[in-house]
Fold this sequence. Notes:
By secondary structure, the protein is an alpha+beta fold. The relative contact order is 0.12. It has a seven-stranded antiparallel β-sheet. The chain has two domains: 2-61; 63-166, Pleckstrin-homology domain (PH domain)/Phosphotyrosine-binding domain (PTB) (PH-domain like), CATH 2.30.29. It has helices at residues 2-28, 30-62, 152-166; strands spanning 71-81, 84-93, 96-101, 111-114, 118-126, 130-138, 144-149. The model has no long low-confidence stretch (mean pLDDT 83). Helix 1 packs antiparallel against helix 2.
Amino acid sequence: MKTRFIKNATVTGVPFGILAGIAFGLQDGMSAGILSGIVCGLLFGICIAGFNWRQRRKMAGSRRESGEEEILLQGVANHFCHGEGRGGWLTLTKGKLSFRSHGKNLQNQPVDIDLSEISEALPVRTAGIIPNGLEVVLQNDSGTERFVVCGRKEWLRKISEQLRETK
């Protein structure tokens, strides 16, 4: 748990701190920019990691079980839907991939994708730089669904295993 918190704080805080440092450095001078960047990065990273931890606990406690299906993998995720990055909980079972919003989004409809509808799962970079994205390509040119997940390699491995088993 501590390791995940530290990793989340670092992955979010360092890029934010660098950008804040550059912005403050251009405005107030290099030494003020460096100090401001460090402080802003630390605070932002801790806040985001704390929010992630809180949401993980909340969603784990309130998630719906998948009926009789065995849950293979689950965790906090974001789902991109019509321009909104919706926070919530992603669950993989032997038959489907499901996303449930935490309810604080503009769009709260659930997403349920039968594994038979998925042609492949691919790694993508969020905002073109952060290696935590997961793209699910649907059969018959039906489009894609994009998620941000923790442990992307494990999600890709588990989804690929299930796709091989269903074919």
